[in-house]
Specification:
Helix 7 runs antiparallel to helix 9. The chain contains 9 helices and no strands. It has one domain: MetI-like (MetI-like fold, Orthogonal Bundle), CATH 1.10.3720.
Length: 218
């Protein structure tokens, strides 16, 4: 018989852990958005060396598990004298991983902009950086919003892997209290509800952004 009264006294600690999960996710997503934009621009660059670096980054990050990347940052870098806290290590690994997928989302959005608009801007004497800033990127962002939203939700759920490098986020705290109280189902169900609440919040915010951008187009 399930007994959720065992979880009741630990809810405040789980709320605090959920906040850490949310903070880690937001930092990682922001880092991924910035990194992804740079990589996408490198990918479409006319300079072969930048394209090659972007391709290498995408090949390595998308072709290896996030868990391995996380362990390399947390356990591997100290071997060469670079050491970060568990939270910072997790944020770096998650941000680097997100950047690879977000770069491809951006690139798809950029390629979706019609060449006619670019040619018209060039005919008016606009330089490429200005065209990219004022014409291409705003439209690419609008097209990319749904996919970026999905990636944000994926990152929120993937943040649970940070528990494996001792970050006191929701999953680690849930595991700790579940094993102490021998109430694994109860604690994991409550943890799942917290994740569901956070992903619902992300979805709500992203839907609002998408609707606002759609209105601005009209």
């Amino acid at each position: 018989m399930l007994d959720f009264s065992l979880v009741q006294n630990f809810i405040p600690f789980m709320v605090k852990a959920a906040w850490i999960t949310l903070l880690l996710s937001v930092i990682s997503i922001v880092a991924g958005l910035i990194l992804g934009l740079f990589v996408a621009l490198m990918k479409i660059s006319k300079y072969k060396i930048l394209v090659w670096i972007a391709d290498l980054y995408l090949w390595v990050i998308r072709g290896t598990p996030l868990l391995v990347q996380l362990f390399l940052v947390y356990f591997g870098l100290p071997q060469i004298g670079i050491e970060f806290s568990p939270f910072t290590s997790a944020a770096i690994a998650l941000g680097i991983n997100a950047g690879a997928y977000i770069a491809e989302i951006y690139r798809g959005g950029i390629l979706a902009v019609s060449k006619g608009q670019i040619e018209a801007a060039e005919a008016l004497g606009m330089k490429y950086p200005t065209i990219m800033k004022k014409i291409i990127l705003p439209q690419a962002l609008k097209v990319s919003i749904p996919s970026l939203g999905n990636q944000a939700i994926i990152m929120l759920k993937d943040s649970s892997l940070a528990s494996l490098v001792t970050v006191s986020e929701l999953m680690m705290v849930s595991q700790r209290y579940a094993s102490t109280n021998y109430a694994f189902i109860e604690f994991y169900i409550v943890a799942a509800l917290f994740y569901l609440l956070m992903t619902t919040l992300f979805t709500f915010i992203l839907n609002k952004i998408e609707k606002r951008m759609a209105v601005s187009e009209q």
